[in-house]
Design goal:
8-stranded mixed beta sheet, single chain, 13 helices, about 300 residues, about 50% helix, alpha/beta
């Protein structure tokens, strides 16, 4: 099929490449001309503006965005609308809040246009192994995208999960679960490392992936990281969060759904960014005040 792609970052460029390898015709746009040039070197048609992109894709158009969540998505849709016609389709493949996706779908529906919210998982490995995609929107919109979805995903790797907003809601919870899984592995391997004799942590990660109940792709990645740097000396223990974990916990609170592990995993990411926090200094001071416990002074 013919598709326009907006946003050629780590995910967008690889998705464009996978589509091109699958025989699709892709027009590619990014604010960075170097990213467009790279897409062209892989077989895409260059679009140096949104106007050029809209004009180069045959109607009814399908335009897929892979851009940061928030205002950037609204700004892009606002710029595209005057360039499009009834029946055209916009896909938001970024990690947008599902409430925003519902709003955008309604805005476009009022103009006779289609909108699909696509939760995309696979990271930098998706180019080779495919992307898992969770899609929200009208059935007719999903059907139009099927040729591209079949190329982007591995077998059985995409699903129409519900109406507008459902794709990004499912992806949000997916990422919240990811926080919890990663935290569990991190705590477990720290405990393994505390054993009174050195253990081969990369070897244990490999072992656990051979049929154990905790096997997973994340564990494969843990093995890879530990094999390259057993003590992880080259990595600082600062863990960012990109929004979906916070949204997951906020939704759990609003819906009165107990999600203790997911919440604690999120809070531990906040914790990772603190060095000698005031909270910990107060804890040490209180132990000293009530029990006379020793405190370590600043050097």
């Amino acid at each position: 099929m013919e598709i326009g792609f907006i946003g050629l970052g780590r995910m967008g460029l690889n998705m464009t490449t996978r589509l091109l390898r699958g025989g699709h015709r892709v027009a590619a746009y990014d604010r960075d001309p170097a990213a467009v040039a790279e897409a062209v070197s892989r077989g895409a048609r260059a679009a140096n503006s949104l106007e050029e992109l809209a004009g180069s894709v045959a109607a009814p158009r399908a335009l897929w965005t892979m851009i940061p969540a928030g205002a950037a998505v609204d700004d892009t849709i606002r710029a595209l609308v005057p360039l499009l016609a009834r029946g055209d389709l916009i896909v938001d493949g970024g990690n947008s809040n599902y409430r925003d996706s519902r709003r955008r779908a309604q805005q476009l529906a009022d103009l006779g246009m289609l909108f699909v919210d696509a939760g995309v998982s696979g990271g930098v490995w998706g180019l080779e192994v495919g992307y898992c995609m969770m899609l929200g929107g009208a059935p007719a919109a999903i059907d139009r995208l099927k040729p591209a979805l079949d190329t982007l995903a591995p077998p059985e790797g995409w699903r129409h999960v519900g109406p507008s907003g459902a794709g990004h809601f499912v992806k949000m919870v997916h990422n919240g679960i990811e926080y919890g899984l990663m935290e569990s592995y991190a705590e477990g391997f720290e405990l393994l490392r505390s054993f009174d004799q050195p253990l081969d942590l990369a070897g244990i990660a490999h072992l656990w992936n051979q049929g154990s109940v905790v096997r997973s792709w994340l564990l494969e990645l843990a093995e890879r990281a530990l094999d390259a740097d057993p003590d992880l000396q080259g990595i600082r223990g600062w863990v960012e969060d990109s929004g979906e974990g916070r949204w997951t916990v906020a939704e759990a609170i609003e819906r009165a759904v107990p999600a203790e592990a997911l919440a604690l995993a999120l809070f531990n990411r906040f914790r990772s960014r603190q060095e000698d926090s005031f909270r910990d200094r107060l804890l040490a001071a209180l132990r000293h005040e009530f029990g006379g416990h020793a405190v370590r002074k600043e050097s």
